[in-house]
Every structure is written in C-alpha cells, then in structure tokens.
Amino acid sequence: MKILPVMPLRDIVVFPHMAAPLIVGRENSIKALEYAMNNNTEIILVVQVDAAINEPGAADLHQTGTISKVLQLLRLPDGTIKALVEGKRRGLLVEFVKQPDFFMGRVEEFKEHNEYDLKNIAYHRQLLLSFKSYAARNKKISPEVVKSVESIADPARFIDVLASHLPVNSVDKQAVLSKINLPERYALVLDIVSRELELTELEGAIQAKVRKRLAKIQRDYYLTEQIKVIKKEIGQDKDEHGAEFDELAERIKDKNMPVVAREKAEQELKKLKPMPPSSAEATVIRNYLDCILSLPWQDKSESELNINQAEKVLDEDHYGLRKPKERILEYLAVQAQVEKLHGPILCLVGPPGVGKTSLCKSVARAMEREFVRISLGGVRDEAEIRGHRRTYIGAMPGRIIQALRKVKVNNPVFCLDEVDKMSTDFRGDPASALLEVLDSEQNTAFNDHFLDLDYDLSDIFFITTANSLH
C-alpha cells in the first residue's frame, strides 16, 4: 500500500495505458502535481461524483482511480497549469491523509489478471467487431485509432484503450474503470459499444429522413422556379396570381366607395403585385384589400319609415312597455322629418330579461332595416372598438367594422348591448373610443386603426342598452 498525492478530476477519466493532457486551475491540485513532479513519485487521479463541487472531500470522490506518472508541467499565463500525465495502473483510494496544501491518500494497487481463456477470447472478438462497426459509422473515431486498438494483444490494455476512445460521458467511463474483474469489464464495454452503435444507427435513419424531405423541398422549389422562367420566356408570365390581381382591380373599379378609399385600394394593389405570394406582407395586404372591398361604403337598404306601421310592429312584438314605445315612436317621428338626426342616442335601461334587445330588433323590423347587435359586456380593450394597426401580427378591424362587413349595408339598426359593463385597463378606455362612434359630430369620419381610412357611420341607427344608470 502506497501513500500518494491525490488529484480530483471533474469530468475526465484517465485510463491505464493512456496519456492525457490536463488543464489544472485549483490550487490544491497544482500543489499535488508539483509535489509528484519534484519528488519523482506517482499520483492518483480520481473522478469527482459531482463535477460542480470546487473543494471536494473524501465523500465527493470515487474510490477507484488511476495511479499515474506526471510527465510534464507547464505554467500558463493565466496562472493555470497544463499537465501531461500517463495512467499506469488501477488503484483503490483506501484512506485520506490530510496535508496543509493538498490531500495525500493510502492507495491499494490492483493487479490485472489477464487470463486469455475461451470466454475472454469470445468477448475480445465480439467487442472488436462491434467497435469496428461503430467506428465505421462515427466520424469521431479515425481508422488509425481502430488499427491501433486492433493491434493490442493484452486483454486489459485492449479494453482500457478502447474505452478511452469511446465518445461517452464520464459516468460510463468511471464504471469501466471501477470493474476489476476482466470478463465483467469486457461485458460492460460491449454493452456500451452496442448501445452507442444502436443510437448511431437511429440517428443516421433520422438524418436520412430529414435529408430526403429537404431534397424534396429543394426539388419542388427548383421545378417551380423553372416553370416561372419558362412561362416568362414564352410570354406567359401572367400566372395564376395575375388572374387574382385582375379580379382585385375589377372589384376596386366596380366598388361603390369614396375616392380616398379607392385610391388607397389601388395603391395597396400596386404594392402587392411585385411581392412573392407566400410572403407575410403579401398576406397582410390581401386581407386589407378584402376588408376594404367587403365593406358597404355607400350601400344602403331601402326603407320607408311609416309611424303607424312602426307602432303596429312594436305592439305585435311586445305587450305593454308603453313608455319605451312612446319614446321610440317620438324619436322615429322626428327622424322621419329630417334627413339626418343630430340628436341623442336611444338607451334602453332595465334589468336582464325585460326585453331591451328584442325591442331593438322590433325597431329594425319597423324601420325595414337590417339588425346588428354586439355585446360590450366585459370589453376592456380600446382595439375592440377601433381595431388593431396593421403593423401587428394577426391585426383585425374593430367590432363595428366587422359587423358592417357581415350585414353588407351601411344603414342598419345597430344595438350596442350592455354599454355599462365596459371597463378600463392599461390597454385603453373603450368607452372613450365608443364616443367617436356615437357622437353625430364625429362619426361621419370614424377612423378604424386597421382601415386607416375615414368611414361614415352617420346613417346607422344606434341604440344602446344597459342594466343600470350608474
């Protein structure tokens, strides 16, 4: 039993019969190396159980290590040491002997039993065959390494050199180092090589699938580009997207909308034409043009307001409700006398279930107009009213504009349900945005952020509902 300096290693296993360069920064490890070099003695290299520990104790080290010879020490400019060590034999760290600057340890040497019996011969052949197969699939192992391993006759040295060249983690290598029995060591290394061979084959199959898919994508792209060039050469460069542009241009021309909106649509179409069809910006412009062209800018439903007929419809649909009906009829009577009513907005207040919304539907039927309803209960984002700007991903127009796209006329009866349930947060105040919708002085030029155009809401008959006046 020898007393040797001890040097802990973080994540590298030095096997017997191999030389390894080490970069050493811990002061106690540097002292241990210098002691071994100056006194021409060997040193035992042991791997830490947890590589993150900076000052390991006896419990933080594996017991089995490698008795090694320090061949060279070189101090680097940053204060660290570059050491070249050569593993000699396996050793068992029996006991620590504390020194002022570093650890010493009582070390028991293991003697290798290299019985080359039939079992070991079978293991040797199978391990060499598996290693060759693995090396043929792994570029990290060079043919020279395979030849050098194949030429080793000593069984113990053969296993250690082979294991040192495997690109596996320190846990597997430490397990090999800790195996003293030769057949068990053969079996363990054979298991590791077989596992790595299986993983390599699986990775190869996955990479082959990826390459095949990428090759198909590249082939399709190449053929598509060739078709485009051929069409351009023979004068048929107006592909399927050309027909789409013609259709959009025709729709812009035929659409009954203000001059400003038409100019904006033509400008966006001009920007769209040179863009790649699959680009994100082209999709945004298409959505924008579709929104502009689907709005009822100046399309109105034909309606003839007859107060007697309106009263009859209200009475048919609802029993009682005398005061609300009278107020509605007064409002309709005034509107019948003027072209556009610049007055207050009707607001029906009452608890849930008394017929506020259904009364709004009756008003639409009495006026022979389309009916639209949006619920504002719980709305706390200004963008719900004014829409999102087109710079945002997934931008959409506000709910007012969306409702008009669905109803396809510019003069519906518009019910804004539960206006008292709106709230305010960091995203803005929807009630303030709603003021621009309802105020007759402002709603002739309502500006939705998505449209970025003035839209006339003055022909819409707005009715609001609430559960409370407070």
From TrEMBL:
Keywords of the record: ATP-binding, Hydrolase, Nucleotide-binding, Protease, Serine protease
Assigned EC number: 3.4.21.53
Catalyzed reactions per annotation: Hydrolysis of proteins in presence of ATP
Localization (cell): Cytoplasm
Keyword Nucleotide-binding included in the entry's annotation: yes
GO cellular component term, pick one: cytoplasm
Lon N-terminal domain boundaries: 4-197
UniProt cross-references to InterPro entries, sorted A to Z: AAA+_ATPase (IPR003593), ATPase_AAA_core (IPR003959), Lon_Prtase (IPR027065), Lon_prtase_N (IPR003111), Lon_prtase_N_sf (IPR046336), P-loop_NTPase (IPR027417), PUA-like_sf (IPR015947)
Cited PROSITE patterns: LON_N
Enzyme class: hydrolase
GO molecular function annotations of the record: ATP binding; ATP hydrolysis activity; ATP-dependent peptidase activity; serine-type endopeptidase activity
GO biological process: protein quality control for misfolded or incompletely synthesized proteins
SUPFAM superfamilies listed in its UniProt record: P-loop containing nucleoside triphosphate hydrolases (SSF52540), PUA domain-like (SSF88697)
Name of the protein described by the UniProt record: endopeptidase La
